[in-house]
Write a structure and sequence with these properties.
- There is one protein chain.
- The protein is mainly α.
- It has one domain.
- It is 45% helix and 8% strand.
- It has a two-stranded antiparallel sheet.
- Helix 4 packs antiparallel against helix 5.
- The protein is globular, with a radius of gyration of 18 Å.
- 20% of the residues are buried.
Length: 132
């Protein structure tokens, strides 16, 4: 009996393009995924997407993340730093990667658009457009 080729079924890398450079973030390992899921819980609490505290067992997992480690970005985290990418941009890529791996691309895209898409001044709900 021949081997099964899983090449077509593996989770693809997260491809991030920034300033003409492309970074390929590999899917997290099982050990990293536990940390990614904990980071997703923390992110949803901090962003007030859920009205709850971070559960103690989730905080225990978060406490295992060492300085300089980003489980959702893996080695790409250090590459971004080495390439001089601004901290705020790395943070946004990190948030995106966490939710990409934990909840899927649609969720990560929607969250990124809600958090970081420029908004026109005066375009908030209920405000009338200025008359010319």
């Amino acid at each position: 009996m021949g081997a099964v080729d899983f090449g077509e079924w593996v989770a693809p890398d997260l491809e991030v393009t920034l300033g003409g450079r492309t970074y390929w973030v590999q899917p997290p390992t099982v050990a990293e995924m536990k940390k990614v899921l904990a980071a997703a819980v923390r992110g949803e609490v901090k962003l007030r997407l859920v009205d709850a505290d971070i559960p103690a067992e989730v905080q225990t997992v978060l406490n295992t993340i060492t300085p300089g480690e980003h489980p959702a970005l893996g080695p790409v985290y250090q590459q971004l730093i080495d390439d001089g990418v601004p901290s705020a941009t790395i943070d946004r890529i990190g948030y995106y990667a966490v939710f990409f791996w934990a909840r899927g691309r649609e969720y990560a895209d929607a969250l990124a658009q809600a958090l970081w898409m420029p908004r026109e001044l005066g375009a908030e709900a209920g405000e009338a457009a200025p008359k010319g």
